[in-house]
């Protein structure tokens, strides 16, 4: 584990991701509405490059709606590029089975520079 | 103790059912009481039972076979209604006639309380099915609701839900059983009609998995915590590979059906039971004990003879190779817990 | 992402041992225009009617976020452009080099409503596959192709089989399991089976899409509303076909026929074999033409590809596979570049140790007559084992 510079914060605007060559598979650093998060680029299912997948929201059960669901958490969910497993970027937790989480890492911004500890 | 959770009592002849049919329908044609979809060559029932009258049509004979000679303590009678005829209102009247006949000929005359019954309903007539459940649910000998396996829509679909709500409200499991005969139905296999009787008989019960899958994925089990389904034709050996598949893809599909809030297999224990069949189980009895523990089938399986079917199985056939705990569960404990039937239920 | 390293003038292809055979890969034409160029002139307007801006791709059942993903791996889009699976070089890089697959079976998916049109469309795909994937782009000898045939006209299918039977890289016949109500054991398919068996070509079957509405089988108790329970139940289509093959005597009529069930699971085979054996024992009189125990037919005549592997407890899974004892009948597959792809590295650990070699390589090699070495690609270690 080492604290390594990633980029200037201007180069990681909200809604964007930078893939850092850290660890065996890489780490994705995400800016979600101004907050920074980092998850391993390795899906806990079959080892797919998780950060190559789409970043989307998800649906929660809403029995009062005609279609029984509501869209929530836009921009906070990483879907694996293979089997579309859903991971909460802010916690690394899988939305279906919390036990199938992915590793998360500390990110900080100091003097306008993004740092990843991985 | 032995509870036989699947016996089909039969009419002696067509005129018998007509006695119970509502007067508005006395001149209607209804399925012959011997009507089958795919007839087993040589007869659908045990050869030795064709002697005095139609197989399983005489309560005294059936009583002697199952209890006096057979050693069972209780039998759940689930009569057939011979097909999903097009006129769904008439079909509901057939169900009511069958229910009244079951009460009059089998349940009420039995002082010992060993015969238990099924409220047959027609899922295509939702209002009529709910009314029939309400009519008979309080009868102490009616222990479940019965519907055909055949359906043009799987039972998890929302149109059927009021029926399952009514059953669950009265603490009645819903038993699904093949009711072949005159019906407007889809072909029995995924690849079309079977060309042989074995091709039909081997496949047909496996269709229960589609009912089961939809009851989970549509959220029916999730919305009705007390709902229990019994798949009375067996087919439970296909459960493990297919529920594994359903579990596997839940991780991918969760957002399309977010009301499914746990692994599909986590619904089985609270909501699903199966009756045994002569076609399920390893051909090597040495595998039976381990096999029954896959998918916790030891907690899901109940002995059902299918008397008087040609494939009628004895309790010993069904529990061959099982350990003591599994035997007890299959022979009576699972059924006892599900139906609330104990030795004390006997008169 | 890097493209496949260019072969330089100095490049000399080295031999590499075959270790992993992938029995389910889906190539796509890079464009409709390219595919059309392989069709007979008089059929172009019939198969691709003018006025459609794009070929519509209907979805009766859709996979996760399929409007974006098109049911493909998001990371499999070729850098040069085109949809995933349309670039032989990039596919070689991702599947053969990165994933370590030695030989892969290419299975295009296509369908048409009317029999003659479907026959021509399948023949068109065969022309395209042979030229784009099995010709110059197969200098390494690591692609094999399926001869696509129409199930709607088995005699036409037989002629198409004969057309390709001698091709060095066409290794199997491919037909849909969505056979509009005719089960596989029906004599309807005899001309197709006869041609395939005579040419030692296994007959593989794979979901062929959802284009004509009648390709969606009506499930006997009605259809689920979601891909989830629809696809979990899908193996019952293969179960139906397998029971028909056995009980309707197809394997007795065609002793050299081999059937491959692709992407329909295989763990169901154990209870289904028990079930068929039990009923055969009890109803032999109904089946005078079925000379052997049903499970024996399965061992001898049937193969299953492994993807998608169920993601359940590994120890329990291996125990199940040991109990099942079908180690000679399973063949590893990835389903590249589809979204439900199984990685070889992940998959191999799920098999019992003494079945791994057969599943990953041996069974497919025996079935398809594959070599023990192929050419290494730039970036691969030669003779890795």
How would you describe this protein?
- The complex is a heterotrimer of chains A (118), B (347) and C (385).
- By secondary structure, chain A is mostly beta strands.
- In chain A, strand 5 and strand 6 (69-79) form a beta hairpin.
- Chain A has strands at residues 3-8, 17-20, 27-32, 35-40, 55-61, 69-79, 86-88, 104-110, 113-117.
- By secondary structure, chain B is of the alpha/beta class.
- Chain B is 35% helix and 10% strand.
- Chain B contains 13 helices and eight strands.
- Chain B has helices at 14-18, 59-69, 88-107, 126-136, 161-169, 197-203, 208-217, 220-223, 239-253, 268-271, 288-293, 315-319, 324-339; strands at residues 3-7, 74-77, 115-120, 142-148, 174-177, 229-231, 272-275, 301-302.
- Chain B has an eight-stranded parallel sheet, sandwiched between helices.
- In chain B, helix 4 (126-136) packs parallel to helix 5.
- The two termini of chain B are 16 Å apart.
- In chain B, 60% of the residues are buried.
- With 385 residues, chain C is an alpha/beta fold.
- In chain C, the strands form two sheets. An eight-stranded parallel sheet of chain C has the order 2-3-4-5-6-7-8-9, with helices on both faces.
- The two termini of chain C are 26 Å apart.
- The A-B interface holds A 45, 58-61, 63, 68-69, 83-86, 94-97, 100 and B 219, 250-252, 254-256, 258-259, 261, 263.
Strand proportion of chain A, as a percent range, falls in over 45%
Per DSSP, the total helix count of chain A is 0
Count the strands of chain A? 9
Q: How helical, in percent, are the residues of chain A?
A: under 10%
Using DSSP, what is the number of strands of chain C?
A: 10
Shape annotation of chain C: globular
Strand content of chain C: 5-15%
Oligomer: heterotrimer
Which whole number gives the mean pLDDT of chain C?
Answer: 93
How helical, in percent, are the residues of chain C? 25-40%
Q: Give the strand order of the largest sheet of chain A, numbering strands 1, 2, ... along the chain.
A: 1-9-8-4-3-2
Shape verdict of chain A: globular
The major β-sheet of chain A equals:
6 strands, antiparallel
Largest sheet of chain C: 8 strands, parallel
Q: Which chains share the greatest interface?
A: B-C, 71 and 63 residues
Low-confidence stretches of chain A: none
């Amino acid at each position: 584990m080492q604290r390594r510079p990633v980029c200037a914060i201007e180069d990681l605007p909200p809604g964007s991701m930078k893939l850092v060559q850290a660890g065996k598979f890489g780490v994705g650093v995400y800016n979600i509405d101004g907050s920074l998060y980092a998850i391993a680029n390795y899906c806990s299912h079959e080892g797919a490059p998780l950060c190559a997948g789409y970043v989307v929201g998800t649906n929660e059960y809403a029995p009062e709606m005609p279609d029984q669901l509501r869209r929530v958490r836009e921009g906070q969910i990483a879907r694996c590029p293979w089997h579309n497993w859903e991971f909460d970027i802010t916690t690394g937790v899988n939305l279906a089975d919390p036990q199938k989480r992915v590793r998360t890492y500390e990110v900080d911004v100091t003097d306008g520079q993004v740092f990843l500890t991985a | 103790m032995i509870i036989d959770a699947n016996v089909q009592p039969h009419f002696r002849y067509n005129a018998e059912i007509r006695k119970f049919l509502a007067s508005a329908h006395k001149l209607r044609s209804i399925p012959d009481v011997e009507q089958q979809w795919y007839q087993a060559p040589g007869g659908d029932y045990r050869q030795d039972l064709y002697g005095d009258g139609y197989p399983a049509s005489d309560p005294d004979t059936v009583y002697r076979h199952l209890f006096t000679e057979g050693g069972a303590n209780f039998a759940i009678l689930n009569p057939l209604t011979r097909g999903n005829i097009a006129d769904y209102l008439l079909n509901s009247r057939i169900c009511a006639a069958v229910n009244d006949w079951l009460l009059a000929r089998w349940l009420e005359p039995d002082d010992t309380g060993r015969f238990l019954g099924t409220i047959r309903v027609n899922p295509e007539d939702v209002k009529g099915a709910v009314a029939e459940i309400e009519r008979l649910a309080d009868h102490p000998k009616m222990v479940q609701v019965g519907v055909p396996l055949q359906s043009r829509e799987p039972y998890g679909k929302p149109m059927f839900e009021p029926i399952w709500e009514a059953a669950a409200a009265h603490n009645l499991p819903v038993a699904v059983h093949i009711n072949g005969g005159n019906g407007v139905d889809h072909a029995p296999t995924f690849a079309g009609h079977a060309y042989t009787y074995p091709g039909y008989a081997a496949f047909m019960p496996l269709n229960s998995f589609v009912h089961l899958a939809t009851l989970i994925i549509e959220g029916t089990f999730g919305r009705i915590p007390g709902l229990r389904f019994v798949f009375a034709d067996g087919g439970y050996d296909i459960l493990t590979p297919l529920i594994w598949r359903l579990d596997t893809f839940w991780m991918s599909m969760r957002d399309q059906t977010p009301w499914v809030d746990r692994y599909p297999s986590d619904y089985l224990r609270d909501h699903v039971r199966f009756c045994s069949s002569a076609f399920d189980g390893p051909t090597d009895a040495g595998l039976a004990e381990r096999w029954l523990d896959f998918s916790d089938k030891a907690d899901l399986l109940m002995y059902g003879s299918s008397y008087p079917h040609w494939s009628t199985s004895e309790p010993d056939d069904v529990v061959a190779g099982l350990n003591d705990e599994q035997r007890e569960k299959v022979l009576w404990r699972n059924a006892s817990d599900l139906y609330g039937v104990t030795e004390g239920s006997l008169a | 992402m890097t493209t496949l390293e260019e072969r330089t003038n100095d490049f000399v292809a080295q031999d590499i041992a075959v270790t992993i055979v992938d029995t389910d890969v889906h190539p796509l034409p890079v464009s409709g225009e390219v595919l059309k160029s392989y069709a007979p002139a008089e059929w172009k307007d019939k198969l691709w009617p003018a006025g459609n801006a794009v070929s519509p791709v209907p979805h009766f059942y859709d996979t996760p976020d399929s409007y974006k993903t098109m049911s493909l791996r998001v990371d499999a889009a070729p850098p040069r452009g085109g949809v995933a699976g349309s670039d032989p070089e990039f596919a070689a890089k991702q599947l053969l080099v990165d994933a370590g697959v030695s030989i892969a079976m290419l299975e295009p998916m296509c369908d048409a409503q009317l029999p003659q049109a479907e026959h021509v469309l399948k023949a068109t795909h065969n022309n395209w596959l042979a030229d784009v994937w099995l010709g110059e782009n197969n200098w390494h000898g690591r692609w094999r192709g399926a001869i696509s045939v129409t199930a709607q006209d088995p005699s036409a299918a037989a002629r198409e089989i004969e057309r390709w039977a001698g091709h060095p890289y066409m290794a199997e016949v491919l037909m849909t399991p969505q056979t509009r109500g005719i089960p596989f054991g029906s004599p309807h398919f005899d001309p197709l089976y006869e041609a395939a068996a005579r040419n030692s070509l296994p007959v593989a079957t794979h979901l062929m899409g959802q284009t004509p509405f009648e390709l969606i089988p009506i499930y006997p108790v009605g259809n689920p509303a979601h891909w989830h329970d629809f696809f979990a139940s899908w193996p019952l289509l293969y179960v139906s076909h397998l029971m028909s093959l056995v009980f309707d005597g197809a394997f007795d009529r065609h002793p050299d026929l081999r059937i491959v069930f692709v992407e329909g699971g295989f763990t169901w085979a154990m209870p289904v074999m028990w079930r068929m054996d039990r009923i055969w024992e009890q109803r032999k009189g109904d089946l005078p033409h079925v000379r052997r125990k049903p499970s024996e037919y399965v061992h001898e005549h049937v193969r299953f590809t492994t993807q998608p592997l169920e993601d359940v407890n590994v120890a329990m899974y291996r125990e199940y596979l040991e109990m099942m004892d079908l180690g000679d009948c399973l063949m590893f597959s990835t389903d590249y570049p589809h979204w439900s792809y199984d990685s070889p590295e992940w998959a191999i650990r799920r098999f019992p140790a003494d079945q791994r070699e057969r599943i990953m390589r041996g069974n497919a090699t025996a079935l398809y007559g594959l070599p023990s070495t192929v050419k290494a690609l730039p970036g691969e270690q030669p003779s890795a084992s």
